[in-house]
Write a structure and sequence with these properties.
Its cofactor is FMN. This is Flavodoxin domain-containing protein. Low-potential electron donor to a number of redox enzymes. Keywords: Electron transport, Flavoprotein, FMN, Transport. Belongs to the flavodoxin family. It is a single chain. The chain is α/β, with parallel strands linked by helices. It has 4 helices and 8 strands. The strands form 2 sheets. Strands 1, 2, 3, 6, 7 and 8 form a 6-stranded parallel sheet that branches. A hairpin with a 3-residue loop joins strand 4 and strand 5. Bound molecules: flavin mononucleotide.
């Protein structure tokens, strides 16, 4: 579970997803995306990538190194999920999540529905994040 987050909203989503994965019996490591080498991802069954969206639909700068390095990593046979905090006051809404989703697909991961959460996750969104983690963990077990 890798994330980029400035004001901690995407980090909180990552933690909630990890809670759901844990409930499904999946041990999860949550790390800042800039601190991870893309080649390390080969050692995991599930790859979840999160980013806030920045200036007119851009991916967080902290994601860029891993995002480009993924072009050399085969993720086939793995489950994937893209997620992030987004704000409908900006356009395009959550475009960074779409970029991560496209990347995971292009590298062969079997991806779940991308998880876009409006700004700070309130109670309903929190439950949606935990549920998404549970569902992802359940798919691995299936
Ligand atoms: C200058 C600026 C540009 C932004 N651009 C977008 C955008 O294009 N699309 C979007 O959905 N959200 C956009 N946002 C909203 C952020 O993604 C949102 O504040 C998010 O909660 C930040 O996540 P974080 O707490 O994980 O850092 C922008 C925010 C700022 C301050």
């Amino acid at each position: 579970m890798l994330f980029a987050s400035i004001t901690c909203n995407t980090e909180e989503i990552a933690d909630l997803l990890a809670t759901g994965l844990g409930e499904a019996g999946v041990t999860t490591e949550v790390k800042q995306i800039f601190a991870v080498d893309a080649a390390e991802l080969s050692g995991y069954d599930i790859v979840a990538l999160g980013s806030y969206t920045w200036m007119e639909g851009e991916l967080a700068d902290e994601c860029l190194a891993l995002y480009h390095a993924l072009d050399t990593v085969d993720l086939s046979g793995k489950l994937g999920l893209a997620f992030g905090s987004c704000d409908a006051a900006y356009s395009p809404y959550g475009a960074a999540v779409d970029l991560l989703d496209d990347k995971l697909r292009s590298r062969g991961a079997l991806v779940a529905e991308p998880l876009k959460v409006p700004v700070w996750p309130g109670p309903d969104a929190k439950e949606r994040c935990v549920q998404a983690g549970r569902a992802l963990g359940g798919r691995r077990a299936a």
